[in-house]
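Q&A log
Question type: sequence-to-structure
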Amino acid sequence: MVKLYCISVLYKGPTSATWLKSAFDLQSFSFFQRGSVEEFMTFFCKTIVERTIPASRQSVKEGEYMCHVYVRADNLAGVVISDHEYPTRVSHTLITKILDEFSQKIPAANWPNLAERDVAFPQLNGYLAKYQNPREADAMTKIQEDLDETKIILHNAIESVLQRGEKLDDLVSKSEGLSMQSKAFYKTARKTNSCCTFS
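Response status: OK
Response body:
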């Protein structure tokens, strides 16, 4: 069964990405894992946006998941995390639609200084629910022409997106955005060779 787990909107600043809004559907994870899974998805979204050049799209496979990212030329960025079955094209259509709506509602001058709690964009939860069925979503959304013209770069693992010499383990251990519990969760999952399967 296809699944969407996360939709996020971020602003790619000169040195780091700022979180603007996100929505999660983590019902398929055990209650005790949800906090760690959400932290990791947040960490992945931020890391991938920071390593994606403006005006480009990419999709990254990691374990059982796909992380689709689009950073617009104005540095507004969208990320969708789904399973492998969810169509890449629908993910990128959704990101484009959300970023267009977000930029119409919230002025670009505000993006660098906003905190997620101050951003009113409740549509994200609606899209997360509505797009769980990609067939229905695709029928509602006409594929945008610019998406056809834009090449989506597909990576087989997060490591291919990281800068030369960077390792995911090092980023996780240095991250201030991950709790000790989530770091321990990551190490355990890594040892059982199911990291980033989050389950």
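Response note: The longest strand covers residues 4-12.
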